[in-house]
User: Which sequence fits this backbone?
């Protein structure tokens, strides 16, 4: 009985097999890349949410027990478009402690490049998020202002608005950021996160000013 020799693969079958293998490898590589991009995007979104929440919570807590004037005539609420400093009275703990303890300084500031830092008692904590710009505005009785001093104004602002834009500063550099050029160009679109803080004990805004504020904030 004659033995039949095993049939070998032809050149065409070999080429087809290699092509199928390469296609499978490409599909696996694409899936892995997409998975990595998705994880990176979710991590970036989580960092942005945590950054905005940390900024808003720090300001909200500080304003709850803020003072108009601290020791030595230092303003209790003072700031610019990028920096807000609040002197607040700490809450005493325990039955023997006073209701309001020593003053504590809370500072929220944007470095003009990519980071927001929260400073408490001299210790600064830089938040891990790609911040394109941050703008702080102060509502007085006559409308919005880019800077505020509670001692000079004789009281608190009626409200403080904090807007945050996330993303990279494309087309700008550190020198531009220091001069405010990147800040201006980066705030042209609507902010990614915005919060309006009402300040307890602040003066009321007259109806005409309130109407102008609403018109200014309208899209």
Assistant:
């Amino acid at each position: 009985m004659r033995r039949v020799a095993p049939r070998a693969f032809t050149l065409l079958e070999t080429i087809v097999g290699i092509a199928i293998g390469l296609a499978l490898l490409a599909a696996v590589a694409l899936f892995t890349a997409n998975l990595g991009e998705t994880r990176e995007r979710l991590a970036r979104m989580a960092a942005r949410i945590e950054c905005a929440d940390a900024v808003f919570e720090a300001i909200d807590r500080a304003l709850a027990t803020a003072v108009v004037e601290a020791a030595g005539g230092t303003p209790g609420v003072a700031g610019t478009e990028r920096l807000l400093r609040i002197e607040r009275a700490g809450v005493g703990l325990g039955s023997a402690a006073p209701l309001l303890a020593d003053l504590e300084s809370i500072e929220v500031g944007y470095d003009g490049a990519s980071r927001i830092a929260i400073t408490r008692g001299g210790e600064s904590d830089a938040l891990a998020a790609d911040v394109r710009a941050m703008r702080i505005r102060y509502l007085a009785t006559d409308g919005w202002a880019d800077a505020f001093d509670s001692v000079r104004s004789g009281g608190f602002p009626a409200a403080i608005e904090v807007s945050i834009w996330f993303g990279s500063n494309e087309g700008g550099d550190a020198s531009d950021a220091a001069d405010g050029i990147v800040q201006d160009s980066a705030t042209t679109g609507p902010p990614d996160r915005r919060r309006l803080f009402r300040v307890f004990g602040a003066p009321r805004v007259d109806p005409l000013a309130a109407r102008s504020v609403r018109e200014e904030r309208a899209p």
Remarks:
- Residues 73 and 201 are 19 Å apart (CA to CA).
